[in-house]
Specification:
The structure is a single chain. This protein has a 7-stranded mixed β-sheet with strand order 3-2-1-4-5-6-7. By secondary structure, the protein is an alpha/beta fold. Helix 1 (about 15-20) packs parallel to helix 6 (about 165-185). It is about 35% helix and about 25% strand. A hairpin with a 2-residue loop joins strand 8 and strand 9. The chain has helices spanning about 15-20, 40-50, 65-80, 95-100, 120-130, 165-185; strands spanning about 1-10, 30-35, 55, 85, 105-110, 130-140, 150-155, 190-195, 195-200. The chain has 6 helices and 9 strands, in the order E-H-E-H-E-H-E-H-E-H-E-E-H-E-E. Bound molecules: glycinamide ribonucleotide. Glycinamide ribonucleotide binds near residues 108, 110, 145 and 171.
Length: about 200
């Protein structure tokens, strides 16, 4: 049974989808730790409600990124974390954190990467006038949403969409895709060929 730490900064709807899909009998993995860096993050409430050890670890006042990440790594190692899922965690991680979990940090991003990395991806998509957007599950590297892509799903962009309606449509798909990808990852199905990575058994 793999032990997953989820890092979040906000509502935690993806955290909830992971809990609902993974913390069930016969799962290859469980969410065993939740960490949020924002006091008001609803993810903290969701973690506690599910009976999972849940911590608020503020980055404010810890301007030194490396110190902050050292603290996170210590906590995650204390909880014997096998791998990490970012779920709306709005901080870029450096090698200090990533080296502790090589090829073992996943993220969900609300766009079809490599288009529209960074913040406010649905707004970026609307401004660009694309007719398809979606979400991406990828491994995290030191760039902003630049790590190897593992899974993607598309959603239509409709004429009357605003950032909220498009975000909501994308999130519905995230809640299906992220747990699906995380299950495969937990089963040890990560493969790589040259510089590209795949989840064996995943299909759109
Ligand atoms: C999700 O839509 C996720 O894709 C996005 O933040 C939202 C968090 O929602 N992440 C990013 O934009 C990362 N660059 P949630 O807190 O309800 O899961």
């Amino acid at each position: 049974m793999k032990r997953i730490a989820v890092l979040a900064s906000g509502n935690g709807s993806n955290l909830q989808a992971l809990i609902d899909n993974l913390n069930v009998p016969d799962s290859p993995a469980e969410i065993s730790l939740v960490v949020a860096n924002i006091a008001s993050a609803h993810a903290l409430v969701r973690g506690r409600k599910a009976g999972i050890p849940t911590f608020f670890v503020p980055h404010e006042g810890r301007e030194d990124r490396q110190n902050y990440e050292t603290l996170l790594v210590q906590l995650l190692q204390e909880y014997e974390t096998d791998f990490v899922c970012l779920a709306g965690f709005m901080r870029v991680l450096t090698y200090r954190f990533l080296n502790a979990f090589p090829y073992r940090v996943l993220n969900v991003h609300p766009a079809l990467l490599p288009s529209f990395p960074g913040t406010h991806a649905p707004s970026q998509a609307l401004r660009a006038g694309v007719k398809l957007s979606g979400c991406t599950i990828h491994l995290v590297d030191e760039g902003v949403d630049t790590g190897p892509i593992l899974a993607q799903a598309a959603v239509p962009v409709l004429e009357n969409d605003n950032a909220d309606t498009l975000s909501a449509r994308i999130q519905t798909v995230e809640h299906r895709l992220y747990p699906q990808a995380v299950r495969l990852f937990a089963e040890g199905r990560l493969r790589n060929k040259d510089k590209l990575f795949f989840l064996d058994g995943w299909s759109p």
